[in-house]
What we know:
Elements: H1 8-26, H2 40-44, H3 51-65, H4 78-85, H5 89-98, H6 114-124
Helix pairs in contact: 3-6, 5-6
Amino acid sequence: MVRLGQHPAQGMFAAALLAPALLALAGCGHSAPPAKPLTEAQSAALTPADPHLAELYGASCKACHTVRASTAPLTGDRTLWDARWSKGPDALLASAIQGKGAMPAGGQCLACTPDDLKALIRFMAGREKE
Length: 130
């Protein structure tokens, strides 16, 4: 904005100086803190909010996804899930349905529908509230 008696070039110069600072401030407070690894105990303490999913999770997924030695990514540990999640929920669902590594087809959840598996994957990946 140019004030009376101010040369237009001065206003543009001031705006050019302020623009980078305003852009830097615009990003403040909006980025999520970096993910931190969870312990097995922290992972084991997590349970889906939905009672139906909690029952399925407890009967199948929890046995491996809370034990680091199983090589399954720990539930809620974004440091282990984020790279997998970047492949997309559909790729993760396909892995759960077909089985992957030591995980049997269906994730050892015979009662799980594809929608159940999607919700369980979202929960285990730490994205239940997204």
